[in-house]
Amino acid sequence: MLSVNEGAMAVIEEMLDYTEELKVKAHELSNGGLVIDCGVEVEGSYAAGLMFSDACMGGLATTSLRTGEIAGVPLQFIDVVCDHPAIACLGAQKAGWQISVGDYFAMGSGPARALALKPKKTYERIEYEDDSDGAVIALESRKLPDEKVIEYIAESCDVDPSGVVALVAPTASIVGSVQVSARVVETAVFKLNELGYDTRKIAVGAGCAPIAPVVKNDMMAMGATNDSVIYYGAVQLSVSEFDEELFKKVPSETSRDYGKPFYQTFEDAGHDFYKIDPYIFAPASITVNELSTGKTYQMGRLNAEVILESYGIQRL
Hints:
This protein is α+β, with helices and mostly antiparallel strands. It has one domain (4-311): Methenyltetrahydromethanopterin Cyclohydrolase, Chain A, domain 2 (2-Layer Sandwich), CATH 3.30.1030.10. Helix content is 36%, strand content 25%. The chain has 13 helices and twelve strands. A six-stranded mixed sheet has the order 1-2-8-7-6-5, sandwiched between helices. A hairpin with a 2-residue loop joins strand 3 and strand 4 (73-82). The longest helix is centred in the last third of the chain and has 15 residues, at 218-232. It is found in: Cytoplasm. Belongs to the MCH family.
């Protein structure tokens, strides 16, 4: 049985060997829990963002950086390749756990969810449950968790607090930008799951997305990082079964909220996520190779105009 938490721990061990190079800082708490600051009180780095993303997917994906262009503007892109998409994306990477302890709140993602079964229906659908003495959670927050937060996570995962590792980065940070763009494949897998497709039929998931420039405001950064995927994320899937009508619904352009930077959509919704069409959280383009027939289909399109508006790039 593949263990996403054990896979993530292997990534963590490497991070701890290179904290100075990665511009991250590890804090051991009094209860033995380990917090790795990737952008709260430190600068972080692109390399740390890759390792943060790798850990988030339980070590079941490969991520890399490259420089690309959007309408002549050079930008960093992330490439993601995953041979176990259902487990890596839904079973680990998905941000499916709201961590709320006292006045601390963070959106939790990563392998620890597979131990806590957050949410349980996801794991029932993909028929996966992890078994590990260690739990790795990724927290999108501007505040580092304390012992009480680690104890809550440990209890939920049925592990000792000393077995918990928390990776932390705010949205408006280098690592925050990288790890959101690294969710490009996840958004396609997640949307297919929501549409009723059995994601275990996805043999391989690969994708790329630009990495949003850092905006020193978490709300604006939330918009720009999401737009990286919504307007310029491209995904390629190899599947055992293709359903044309279902897959045509995957690209973000099928959402009623498509067409403007996400931050504007969020403002128009009165900062209420429940008023936003959830189908907007999807890649811009998807290419599907049906392994049983050898046929390949492409849906959606990249949108340079909106992505550059979202990033606020000024041509001088």
